[in-house]
Structure formats: structure tokens, C-alpha cells
Amino acid sequence: SPRASAGDAAQWPTVVAHRGASAYAPENTLASIDKAARLGFQWVENDVQRTKDGELVVIHDDSLKRTTDVAKVFPDRAPWKVKDFTAAEIARLDAGSWFGAAFTGTRVPTLTQYMREVEHNHQSLLLEIKNPELYPGIEQQTLKVLGNEGWLDQSHLDSRLIVQSFSADSIRIVHDLSPGIRTGFLGTPSVSALHEYAAFTDLINPSYGSISTSYVSAVHGFTGPHGTPMEVYAWTVDDAPTAWKVAGYGVDGIITNKPDVVRSALNGF
Ligand code: G3P
Ligand code: CA
Fold it and tell me: Domain GP-PDE spans what residues (predicted)?
């Protein structure tokens, strides 16, 4: 069974497999994190949303259409929103065949199933609370699953978990409920606003096209809620020249669908 290489976490910058190794296996599935582990990658990113009956599931879009066969199984239920389907209905869907015939039978994982595989693989998780405005209370519910799975102990908090969102409100809620968790804000706040973010977020995770060396230095000049310099993980970088450019800005992490491409580009950087 897949195991991430122990050495990966020590390398700079941290390379995070976006939605798993999603260039090579269907995004946000156990297959995509297993692929990342087989390639030797410690860190994986995912997206968490909620079903009609309150189960947390790992999927990126607010609709099931792009990454499952829902339109075939439930033809009359357009636009196939995640929040309008029960966990049992979603469990029937194929989340792999759209990507390739070899992945037929792959399922949309529940957050619990996903956490167990991440743990089994000895991986670390950049967990995104996706579209929190659609799912009131999802922060508390996510923390409950993390706690049940043993992910709120000190060793996981220290080095294996970051919770991020495009919603500053959502990140603030996570920080208030569970101050030991490292958090990340997805976006590029103005430098003059960074001091406000430093109260509740440890990382600023921007689209790589929106940053520069001076922006990354500005973020590094602030101390986050855990008393360490704020960090920058940039997304989504899938080719060598862009990896060189973005690493040159001094980022701490690079989020990529092709972790092997980014890592080999940066070897000896
Ligand atoms: O982790 C960064 C990235 O996932 C943010 O964008 O749309 O892929 O969730 P998106
Ligand atoms: Ca994401």
C-alpha cells in the first residue's frame, strides 16, 4: 500500500498535490492521494462540502456533474448540486470514469473515509472548506470529524494539518473554535490589510499570477497567530518555468496538479 516518503516534508518549498495528484488520477478521490503517495508526496490538498443529509464529502465543484456520472444516474435532477443529494445517493456515483476507464468504480469519498486514507498513507493535509456560505456550521462539523479521526492532537497540529478557505469568515471561525489549527487564507489581500489577517491566519495562499517577490517578503514580515512568520503557498503551478519563477519569489509552498514535475524542476534550484 502507498506510503509517502519521509524525506519530502523537509524539502523547500513544500510541494502540495492539488486535489491529490490530480493530473494523473481523478481529483479529490482516494486514487488521487494514493497516486501522490506513490510519487513520494507528503502533502495533499482537498475540498470539503456537505450533502443534503449532513455528511461531509470531498469534492471541488458545488455540482456533481463534472466529476461524476450523476447526469446519467439521476437525469432529472439538474443542476445536480452536492447539497441536494444524500450521502447514499452520492455513494452510488462513479467519480473515476470521467477521468479514465482505469478509474471506473472510484467513489466520491466522505471526509471520514478520506482522512483514514491520508492517515494510512502517513500524509499531511491542506483541507479547504469550499463554498462555506452554502453550508452554515460546516467549520464546526469539519473540526468534529478531524477530532474523531485523531487529527487534533499536538503532532497532527504541529506538522500535518492546515485548514484553508477563500472565506476569511470561515477561517476566523476555525481559528476561534480550535486555535491550535494552522489556517490559510486563499487570496491576495493588500499589504495594508495583512496585519488584520495575521490575527487568525498563518498562511496567505494566492494565485501565483497575483504575487511578486516584494509581496511574499511583505507576508513574511508578519507574525501569524502561532507566533511564527506568515507563509505563502501559491497555486496552481504545473510546469517547470512557472515553478522556477514562483520559487524565485521566495514562496514556502507550491500547490500543483503535477507534483513530480514541480519537484524535479526545483531539484537543485
Ligand atoms: O489550494 C488552492 C486551490 O485549491 C484553490 O482553488 O478552485 O482549486 O479550490 P481551487
Ligand atoms: Ca481547493
Answer: 13-266
